[in-house]
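User: Teach me something about this protein's shape.
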Amino acid sequence: MKHTPTVLALAASLAIVGGAALMTTPASAASFDCSASGLTPNEKTICSNLTLNDDDVKMATMYTMLKGLFAMGMSGNMADDQKAWLTEREACGTNVACIEKAYDTRIDQLQKIYDGIDKPI
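Assistant: First, the predicted structure itself:
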């Protein structure tokens, strides 16, 4: 999967900062609190797996950045798509390979949204 360097550079930078924080605390993902009570088995799996945790940081960073660029209509559509994706990710349960694939799919979707934005030269 090929990604535009700009959005990935931002996501990677934020993931590194997030990763540094992870070294000093128990695993925590950017988009939810890993120390919260009532986490689903899916969320617990993400919190306990560094690769999934990093994928979550990357996806959440891309989603937040992109959602902020659009007016209510597109932003609302993105929120609906994110909610549907979270349901799909949850359906993976504790299957790490399935969760990884879900993140790859969502990151690719977000990258395509970014690639479709008209940018100044």
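Now, about its shape. Residues 75 and 83 are 12 Å apart (CA to CA). The chain is about 70% helix and 0% strand. If you'd like, I can walk through any region in more detail.
User: That's plenty for now, thanks!
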